[in-house]
Amino acid sequence: MSSVPPVSPDPGPTIEPVLASAVQAELPVNEVARLAALNRYGVLDTPAEQAFDDITTVAAALCNVPIAVITLVDEHRQWFKAVVGLDGTTETPRSVAFCAHAILEPDQILEVPDALDDPRFARNPLVLGEPNIRFYAGAPLVSPDGQALGTLCVIDRVPRHLSPRERNALASLARQVVAQLELRHLVADLSLRSTTDVLTGAWNRRAFDQRLAAEWNRHARTRSPLGLLMIDVDHFKDFNDRFGHPTGDGALVQIVQSLLQPLRSNDFLARFGGEEFVAILPDADATGASEAAERVRAAVEGTAWTFHPLTVSIGAVAAQPEHGIDPHTLVAQADRALYRAKQAGRNRVHLFERWN
Ligand SMILES: Nc1nc2c(ncn2[C@@H]2O[C@H](COP(=O)(O)OP(=O)(O)OP(=O)(O)O)[C@@H](O)[C@H]2O)c(=O)[nH]1
């Protein structure tokens, strides 16, 4: 065996590899507000939707390009809400995103006729490799408060230009993307308002009915128990009479905080009406429901009240699938148990146990 290392063959003249590297866009001056506006829409990582898919389809057809994308520029990535012509791609790093450059000028379409001729993009990995971008035009998606959230962009693998009509059409479609985002945001907001109690911020009766129906179905499907607490503030009329209705309103707000504090994150608290609240306790059997009720009762009793101490009485109940009851009966039984707790002196829990 020789200790002399083998002589490597002459490598010949060196060829510099063309290294892909992106010229990163600067951050917009209003980046914090821009990201806040984007997050307000709650659109990131949502499933595909026909209305957005339709817009990219129309954009690709109008501009006669193989690729069109609705892309939203998140903190470290651009995420695609809708895409034509890029199978399976849902996001790329922000560092290589053309759109990260486009959002710097919210009032203009960024048009790159030939990426290989543009020092910002000539060595971009999306140009030198898949999807081999040569032409790019991105119309910023500008929210009503002036934040550029991302772009509607059209892309080709050959150099080209947009005609003035195509530019106008692309800008119009970008406005339609924002209109769709606004519409969805408004609907979500309205839906939240219609299920929230204005005074306390707790879920309202409508939300309770919906959640009880959903939890009841789950309870029947998984054959897991379902607990329910009916909670009523004690002597609240006296409190109102003594301190006035507005102070009573403040106390109801404080009560909701006390009621929520011992509940688990998947429990559901709603204002049933007036000074009565209801909590749905998924998977809680009779023992779990009465223990949770006692924790809730104690939390209210232990609250540092602003005006005068308040207590609650609680009717607790838990359904097992073999009980063969319906959700209305569950609520009625919790109400009966609450009545018993009131009769027994208030500031206490009564567990409903007898089904037959
Ligand atoms: N401030 C305020 N009071 C409310 C609200 N909703 C219901 N109430 C009051 O809650 C009181 C309920 O009175 P009652 O049903 O007699 O019950 P209670 O005085 O709590 O007596 P028990 O339940 O038997 O302990 C009434 O005075 C209602 O006006 C509200 O939104 N704000």
From TrEMBL:
What domain of life is recorded for the organism? Bacteria
Q: Which Gene3D superfamilies match?
A: 3.30.450.40, 3.30.70.270
Q: Which SMART domains match?
A: GAF (SM00065), GGDEF (SM00267)
Annotated ranges, domain GGDEF? 224-354
The UniProt keyword set, sorted, is: Kinase, Transferase
Question: Which residue stretches, if any, does this entry annotate as coiled coil?
Answer: none
UniProt cross-references to SUPFAM superfamilies, sorted A to Z: GAF domain-like (SSF55781), Nucleotide cyclase (SSF55073)
Could you give a GO molecular-function term held by this entry?
kinase activity
Which PANTHER family does the UniProt entry name for this protein?
A: GAF DOMAIN-CONTAINING PROTEIN, SLR1143 PROTEIN
Q: What is this protein called?
A: Histidine kinase
Q: Which organism is it from?
A: Piscinibacter gummiphilus
